[in-house]
Amino acid sequence: MHTPVTIIGAGLGGLTLARVLHVHGIPVTVYEAEESPSARTQGGMLDIHDYNGQLALQAAGLMDEFHAIVLEGRQALRVIDRDGSVLLDQADDGTGGRPEVQRGELRRILLDSLPAGTVRWGHKVTRTRALGEGRHEVTFAGGGAVDTGLLVGADGAWSRVRPLLTSTVPEYAGTSSVDVYLYDADTRHPVAAKTVGGGSMIAPAPGREIFAHRESGDTLHIFVLLAKPQDWFAVIDFTDATAAGARIAAEFDGWAPELTALITDGDSTPVLRPHFTLPTGHRWDRVPGVTLVGDAAHLAVPNGEGANLAMLDGAELGKALAAHPGDIEAALTEYEQAMFPRSAEAATLDGGEIIPLDSEDNTAHGLINMVTGDGR
């Protein structure tokens, strides 16, 4: 006999947990605030690592589906100095351990693997409270509530489940990113397409960085990272794409024009994404009947590990519950004791997706050492 599991949040971590539970015959329901799977765009590219994200997909029995959505050639990496000189041009030979997929496609295969009705859309959580003896109540906007003996918060940075376990809240990390898209780049933005190449491009410097992904087809997704206080961004009108792009590009004065054009020539309205983080090594004392996965548990500055860790959290928790069908607390203890150090270690890694911006050692040459293994 298994206690039904209630998951809050239908992101990658929550859906991976739901899938692994389904594989093991454990009843599960996922409650998601969004109205439908297509309520919003599901972000850009993700590199799924062979040491965490792919292990989660193996546990979910979805490796064939995963391989079918991999975008070939996207593990190529180019590092460019601020003067435009290419310092590293690493081709994708098909042997790398971090194949790239579109986040939306990955979420789709997870959703498709679950029985109809597993995810309850349009359920925004307004309150959670302990009922005693390991049970918790979740209340939803617009009325309705659920009483559960096993509650999992997979609801991200501003989790409504986390306060059941800890009073710690995320704090601004001192960096933010601004992202834009360039569409039909090979024909409409040929210089940008050539600069980025076939996979990822990084142009790093202390306190600032330009990062680009070639997504499906010839769409380029550009991320500009700056180490600035939130007040600095607050005075920029991001609804004025031209003015916002020019203000951000001004922080790269003196850089090669083909790099600053990645900022100013965007085809979409710039989107500001402040980075928030929980303390590295964040943990809590065991509370009966509730736990967290993904950003709800260990929000960190983006470094390429977040989605992978969330999926591995979900898979490992699902496996622990399956291994202890009569003892929820043993399963949750086993999961958390492994998750805490795993997430703390990952928070200190330079995953190659977004590089720490607060050190003079973070130069393009230092980055080459990191991506080639000399700086690990």
Automatic annotation (TrEMBL):
User: Which Gene3D superfamilies has this protein been placed in?
Assistant: FAD/NAD(P)-binding domain
Pfam families per UniProt: FAD_binding_3
> What does the record give as the reaction this protein catalyses?
a tetracycline + NADPH + O2 + H(+) = an 11a-hydroxytetracycline + NADP(+) + H2O
- Cofactors per UniProt? FAD
Cellular compartment(s): Cytoplasm
Which amino acids does the record list as binding FAD?
D47, R103, D295
Give the Enzyme Commission number.
Answer: 1.14.13.-
Q: Which residues are listed for NADPH binding in this entry?
A: R40
Provide this UniProt record's keywords sorted from A to Z: Cytoplasm, FAD, Flavoprotein, Monooxygenase, NADP, Nucleotide-binding, Oxidoreductase
Q: What class of enzyme is it?
A: oxidoreductase
Q: Which InterPro entries match?
A: FAD-bd (IPR002938), FAD/NAD-bd_sf (IPR036188), TetX_monooxygenase (IPR043683)
Question: Where is the FAD-binding domain positioned along the sequence?
Answer: 3-326
Membrane among keywords: no
Stated family: Belongs to the aromatic-ring hydroxylase family. TetX subfamily.
How is the quaternary structure described? Answer: Monomer.
Q: What does this protein do?
A: An FAD-requiring monooxygenase active on some tetracycline antibiotic derivatives, which leads to their inactivation. Hydroxylates carbon 11a of tetracycline and some analogs.
Q: What is known of its domains?
A: Consists of an N-terminal FAD-binding domain with a Rossman fold and a C-terminal substrate-binding domain.
- Protein's recorded name: Flavin-dependent monooxygenase
| Species of the source | Streptomyces lanatus
Q: What is the lineage of its organism?
A: Bacteria, Bacillati, Actinomycetota, Actinomycetes, Kitasatosporales
